[in-house]
Amino acid sequence: MKYFMMSLRFNKSNPEEFGLKYKGNNEYVFENDNSVWRARQMYDFGWGAENGFYRDPLPKFSELFELAFDTKDNDNLYGAATVLTEDYPKELLDKIEEILKESNNKKYNRLFEALNLKNPINRSFKAGQDSKTISLDAKRWQNISSHFN
Questions:
Q1: What is the DSSP letter of 69?
Q2: Mean per-residue pLDDT for 115-127?
Q3: Which structural domain, as residue segments, surrounds residue 20?
Q4: Among 10, 13, 59, 128, whose Cα sits 20 to 30 Å from the Cα of 136?
Q5: Alpha-carbon dihedral of residues 88, 91, 92, 97, nearest 10 degrees?
Q6: What is the DSSP string of 2-62?
């Protein structure tokens, strides 16, 4: 099932190009199956966040992680990677650390590449956190990054 639709190099910019019709209240309908979609900035391949939409309701963390891991669809992979990184950084940090302890973690390489884990940045929420928590999370993300470099 398709959970995400996104442009690539901004080749789509309006809902109609995605096959969506505006329903009202920031909701769009996919004409093929009448599913409800919402607009969201998607993955940034390096030239800015792509235009996109997600199927409403959006799956929770564990479903998104499995989707990103199992999918063959690039929109689902990069859409799920975007949501995991932006909406669930703490859960993602814990999950990646758990996976890296497994001996057979190479099966996650496609997902790890989509998550851009080589980049040593603190992806965790910083607003409302004390400096100790921010520093500990930054060190954990840095350790993950060093695993891939």
A1: H
A2: 88
A3: 1-58
A4: 59
A5: 170
A6: --EEE-STT---SGGGGTEEEEETTEEEETTTTEEEEE----BSSSSBPPEEEESSPP-HH
96 shares its domain with 135: yes
Spatial separation of the C-alpha atoms in residues 139 and 144, rounded to whole Å: 9
Total domains in the fold of the chain: 2
Distance between CA 53 and CA 121 in Å, rounded? Answer: 26
Q: Do residues 80 and 9 both lie within one domain? A: no
Overall size of the chain counted in residues: 149
The string of pLDDT tens digits covering residues 85-120 is 999 999 999 999 999 998 888 899 999 999 999 988
Sheet holding 20-24: strands in order across?
4-6, 52-55, 35-39, 27-30, 20-24
